[in-house]
Amino acid sequence: MPLTIPRLPLLTGLEGYDASGLRNDVSAGLAIAAVGLPSAIAYPAIAGLPPETGLYASITPLVAYALFGPSRKLIVGPDAATMTVLAAVLAAIFATPGVTTDRVTVAALLALAVGAFCLAARAVRLGVLATFLSRPILTGFFAGISLSILIGQIKRFTGVDIDADGLIAPVLELLREAGSIHWPSLVLALGCFVLLQVARAVKSPVPGPVIVVVLSVLLSSAFDFEARGIAIVGNIPEGLPALTLPRMGDLPIDTLFVGAAAIFLVSFGSGVIAARSFGTLGGYQVDPNRELAGFGAANIAAGLFGTFPVTASDSRTAVNFAVGGRSQIASLVAAATLIAVLLFLGGVLRILPIPALGAILAATALSLIDLAALRHIWRVSRMEFVFALIAMWGPIGLGVLNGVMIAIAATLVYLLRKSMYPHDALLGRIPGRDGFYKLHREPQARPVPGFGACMIQGSLLFFNTDYVQARLLSIAETLPAGAGWLVIDASAIPQIDSTATAMLDEVGDELKKRGITLGLAELHSDARAMLDRAGVIEKIGPTMVFAGIEDALAAFAGRSERAAG
User: Fold this and answer.
1) Of 108, 180, 220, 272, which has fewest CB within 10 angstroms of its CB?
2) Which residues pair with 446 in a beta bridge?
């Protein structure tokens, strides 16, 4: 049998590629680089990293995803939410006494760890983790992240160092330190912020961040902002990032592991949501398991070239779609363009004012607050809205890293609550029609005398057995003692555990005392096997286990006729 070598996704995506596709990809790549440059320089500041790391994160991960990522149009790069979680992880690591490893090395190690998590999850097909944090909880969490980013821009806007944490305390501290505000910086930042909002409102063909970067660099050169006390980016190393393997050194491995897991969960969850959104726009399916391979390659490339974790970028992917990019050639063109910026424009970017970057970050943070989604959640489910608020409060009240844990805990509580109280319904017949109907839905449906039929919708597991037992006994109260059956339609019960088998055994015993016979209909094979091993089937009698609820009614009618005869 001949050996087959798997083809890179990039090569598969170039099948049928032509000159018109190349023109579109070159245009898209240049646009991606133009839009990505401001955020590439601004985002590292969230985690206290030098600006060149943002450029590195916009080059090598792009190339890695282009080679190994499944999507023809998705663009990876720095992401505000991921950077905020990274900042919290770095703060936790450097709060550990004795850590002397530099910040960039730690960020690179975290990128490698996130990449390893992605590839390990891909190997065992854990793409389902992308849906672990539900949309309501992610919506709330990103809103909390955005408020944290906004508070973090106080120093870049005003030049005032703020030590307080939370949402209100930093504002109060700023009011107390109002005399220290550097007013030229504040005016510049507010002006850039207003310009960004105007550009967005009028749907400027040139993206707002590009306008702000170009205009602020020109003003900085013309008026010598550095001499006037306005902070600037400073020297950016000219040259390409070097391939190196970062060393652990004296880092606490447990904190590094937990931090990488938090970054992985948030970045992959938000990344796949972005991928699916653009997949819907582009008319193609997104496989989270295949995306794990692309994200894993991108993050490993980031770690090996001295930068930080990355994920799918909404803004860059949107530009790619808008310009008409056809393939991942657009990513390669964008990476090449940013390499040229590193090599030839480092001196120009040196005078970029920090308040302008603060304005870009503040505008980005506001875009993370999806008020329309929050209103939709409020309209659809008040309970899910509460969980969204809990997830939003986490990053603000307890810090971003704890906020991730709060979001995970909220997800678990939400799932547990949904499973603790499985829905049930009494079933009856409608005269002249076949089948059984839920009594609460169909006013014409009537219960069959002496024949109690109910449906339970959900798995029977240890944490909901008490509730289900109480419901079944309550239903039994409606049946005449000594002459009734209670048949459970189990078609919507996918799983039963050992605690549930014991509960059904107890229910059968209790019903027997009342002269009521317990029956089961349409059991799933796994559930039936579990009840068989537990001896429940033998105890209630194999003749009381039916293929369907209609078969159970037929058996009940036959029994009643024999009793009457």
Assistant:
1) 180
2) 429
The predicted model gives 220-238 an average pLDDT of 88
Nearest to 452 by CA among 481, 431, 411: 481
The residue whose two tokens read 């603060």 is: 358
The pair phi, psi for residue 469, each rounded to 5°, is -60, -45
**pLDDT at site 140:** 84
How many angstroms separate the Cα of 261 from the Cα of each of 244, 255, 265?
A: 23, 10, 6
Inform me whether the pLDDT recorded for 506 exceeds 90: yes
CA atoms within 13 A on the CB side of 293: 15
Q: In the structure, what pLDDT confidence band is assigned to residue 10 with cuts at 50, 70 and 90?
A: low
Question: Does the CA dihedral 386-277-280-201 come out positive or negative?
Answer: positive
Concatenate the DSSP letters of all residues of 269-318 into one string. Answer: HHHHHHHHHHHHHHT----HHHHHHHHHHHHHHHHHTT----EE-HHHHH
C-beta atoms surrounding 206 within 10 Å: 11
Strands 423-428, 437-438: pairing kind: antiparallel
Would you say 352 and 217 are in contact if contact means Cβ atoms under 8 Å apart? yes
Q: Kindly list the structural domains of the chain, giving each domain's residue range(s) and its CATH number in brackets, ordered by start.
A: 33-370 (no CATH), 423-564 (3.30.750.24)
Flag whether pLDDT at 1 surpasses 50. Answer: no
Q: How confident is the model over 232-255, as a mean pLDDT?
A: 84
Position with higher pLDDT, 137 vs 436:
436
- For the chain, how far is it from start to end, CA to CA, in angstroms? 73
The residue among 39, 41, 106, 30 whose CA lies nearest residue 342 is 41
Q: Could you tell me which residues are beta bridge partners of residue 487? A: 453, 519
Q: Give pLDDT, residue 131.
A: 65
**Percentage of residues in the chain having pLDDT higher than 90:** 33
As a whole number of angstroms, the distance between CA 473 and CA 336 comes to: 70
Q: Rounded distance, CA 225 to CA 185, Å?
A: 9
Transcribe 397-410 into DSSP letters: HS-HHHHHHHHHHH
pTM of the model: 0.73
Round to whole Å and give the CA distance between 289 and 219.
47
Is pLDDT of 105 > 90? yes
Q: Which residues pair with 485 in a beta bridge?
A: 451, 517
Query: Taking Cα atoms as reference points, which of 353, 366, 369, 349 lies closest to residue 54?
Result: 349
For position 3, what pLDDT does the model report?
A: 42
DSSP output for 347-379:
HHHHT-BHHHHHHHHHHHHHHT--HHHHHHHHH
- Is the model more confident about 4 or about 124? 124
Q: Mean pLDDT score of the chain, rounded to an integer?
A: 86
For helices 465-476 and 498-513, give the axis angle rounded to 10 degrees: 20
Query: What tokens appear for 137 in the block?
Result: 């909880």
In this structure, are residues 311 and 267 in contact, taking their beta carbons and an 8 Å threshold? yes
Return all residues near 551 (Cβ < 8 A) that are at least 6 apart: 521
Q: How many residues does the chain have?
A: 565
- Tens digits of residue pLDDT in 361-415: 888 888 878 888 889 989 988 888 888 888 888 777 776 667 767 777 777 777 7
